[in-house]
Each structure stands twice: as C-alpha cells, then as structure tokens.
Write a structure and sequence with these properties.
By secondary structure, the protein is an alpha+beta fold. It contains two helices and four strands; from the N terminus they run E-H-E-H-E-E. Strands 1-2-4-3 form a four-stranded mixed beta sheet, with helices on one face. A hairpin with a 2-residue loop joins strand 3 (about 55-65) and strand 4 (about 65-75).
C-alpha cells in the first residue's frame, strides 16, 4: 500500500499521538494513507477507537521492537 504521509509520534504519550494523527489527516485528501509510528502501547486501543469515531479506516496495526506502526486511510 502506498503511504502518502508519515507521522513520527515516537516518545509521545496519550493523547498526543491521536491529536497529531487528527491534525495530519486534516491536511490530506480522501483515500490518502497516513503512516503513524508510535512507542506508546496505549496507542493500539486509541487508534482503533479514533478510527471508529471518525470513520477513517485503520488499514493495519503492527508492532515491531517496541514500535507500533499504523496505516490509516482518510475517509
């Protein structure tokens, strides 16, 4: 999947990864994909809840070496 924009949210704790994700998505057009990298374990549930509340699609959620990588497609 093509990634249109990347957001580095490493080292940030809740709610900052979600707030920065929301701001990044606001600048994007529908269908574009945002890659978010976070180190906050709480971001797993937060990203899913954010996707459910906003209608943006959480395309994938993976964890590798303590980093959580999310691909979110703007609705």
């Amino acid at each position: 999947m093509n990634v249109d924009k990347e957001l580095d949210a490493r080292g940030l704790n809740c709610p900052l990864p979600i707030l920065k994700t929301k701001k990044s998505l606001a600048d994007m057009t529908p269908g574009q994909v945002l890659k978010v990298v976070s180190t906050d374990p709480g971001s797993i549930k937060d990203m899913q809840a954010f996707a459910n509340q906003t209608g943006n699609a959480l395309v994938s959620s993976t964890e590798e070496k303590g980093e959580y990588v999310f691909l979110m497609q703007k609705k």
